[in-house]
């Protein structure tokens, strides 16, 4: 984006009122993606996570209303909690602990969805909600503790790859380019959602660790650690609505996406501004 005509980067806390030029546009679309997203971050900043899900979403919706713009809310598969339905369809209401250690993020996003559709029904705001499943790729923060960047860094350093729990819990990994394509497809459609944006190919965490180790040609052993509290056992999207309403599906295979991610971490290894190293962290 840097260097493109009209691009402007403004550092701002979304829970506060936006500067005047950003409040009135004109804008065709407002994308609201601001939120801590890794368990390590949102468990460390629980009140901030809840505030951006509430106040930050209201700020974005108010801008969309003033500008008569389409508002695209980045929600999450975490609204399904530890699901009892597989794969997860958008009609599934979820299985969420509203006061548990993950609740600040789960409930912030559930509230944000409720607020978006309230603005749609009461004020006529054009909203679209994307429920994004596990996304990965270059430029991830290694210190956020999520599985893919942690495993990549450990494998490239031949350190033990740390898997929390038995490794049988599953995740849906979607490469960042595919996720962005899904968000753009939603933004340019008339579909309000919610729409699942994710890869329907289910992998166990142990399979992810083994795949990354192989692609990195690493000698790292895999070390099993005690399970994280309330770690979802399965995570897999039903993307039938994304296919039919948006004409979208993920295209990047796991080997291609993880290879590109590993290549980026290799490039960073010798740089002073490279990712901060962490050996153990909470995984999604």
Automatic annotation (TrEMBL):
Gene Ontology cellular-component terms listed: cytoplasm
Subcellular localization(s) per the UniProt record: Golgi apparatus membrane; Golgi apparatus, Golgi stack membrane
Recorded superkingdom: Bacteria
InterPro entries in the record: Epimerase_deHydtase, NAD(P)-bd_dom_sf, UXS-like
Keyword Glycoprotein: yes
PANTHER family linked: UDP-GLUCURONIC ACID DECARBOXYLASE 1 (PTHR43078:SF6), UDP-GLUCURONIC ACID DECARBOXYLASE-RELATED (PTHR43078)
UniProt topology in membrane: Single-pass type II membrane protein
Limits of the NAD-dependent epimerase/dehydratase domain: 26-198
Protein name: NAD dependent epimerase/dehydratase family protein
Gene Ontology biological-process annotations: D-xylose metabolic process; UDP-D-xylose biosynthetic process
Cofactor(s) recorded in Swiss-Prot or TrEMBL: NAD(+)
Entry GO MF terms: NAD+ binding; UDP-glucuronate decarboxylase activity
Record's keyword terms, sorted: Decarboxylase, Glycoprotein, Golgi apparatus, Lyase, Membrane, NAD, Signal-anchor, Transmembrane, Transmembrane helix
């Amino acid at each position: 984006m840097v260097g493109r005509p009209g691009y402007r980067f403004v550092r701002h806390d979304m829970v506060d009122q936006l500067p005047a030029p950003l409040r009135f546009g004109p804008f065709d679309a407002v994308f609201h993606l601001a939120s801590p997203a890794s368990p390590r971050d949102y468990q460390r900043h629980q009140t901030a996570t809840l505030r951006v899900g509430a106040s930050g979403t209201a700020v974005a919706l108010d801008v969309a209303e003033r500008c008569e713009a389409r508002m695209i809310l980045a929600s999450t598969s975490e609204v399904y909690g530890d699901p009892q339905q597989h794969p997860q369809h958008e009609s599934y209401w979820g299985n969420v602990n509203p006061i548990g250690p993950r609740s600040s993020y789960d409930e912030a996003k559930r509230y944000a969805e409720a607020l978006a559709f309230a603005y749609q029904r009461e004020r006529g705001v054009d909203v679209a909600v994307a429920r994004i499943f596990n996304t990965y790729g270059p430029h991830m923060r290694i210190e956020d503790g999520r599985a893919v960047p942690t495993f990549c860094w450990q494998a490239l350093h031949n350190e033990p790859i740390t898997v929390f729990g038995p490794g049988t819990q599953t995740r849906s990994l979607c490469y960042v380019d595919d996720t962005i394509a899904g968000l753009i497809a939603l933004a340019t459609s008339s579909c309000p959602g919610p729409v699942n944006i994710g890869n329907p190919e289910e992998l166990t965490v142990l399979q992810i660790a083994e795949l990354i180790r192989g692609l990195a040609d690493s000698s790292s052993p895999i070390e099993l650690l005690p399970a994280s509290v309330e770690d979802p056992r399965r995570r897999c999207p039903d993307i039938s609505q994304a296919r039919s309403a948006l004409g979208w599906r993920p295209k990047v295979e796991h080997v291609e996406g993880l290879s590109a991610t590993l290549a980026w971490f290799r490039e960073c290894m010798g740089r002073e501004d490279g990712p901060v190293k962490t050996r153990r962290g909470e995984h999604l």
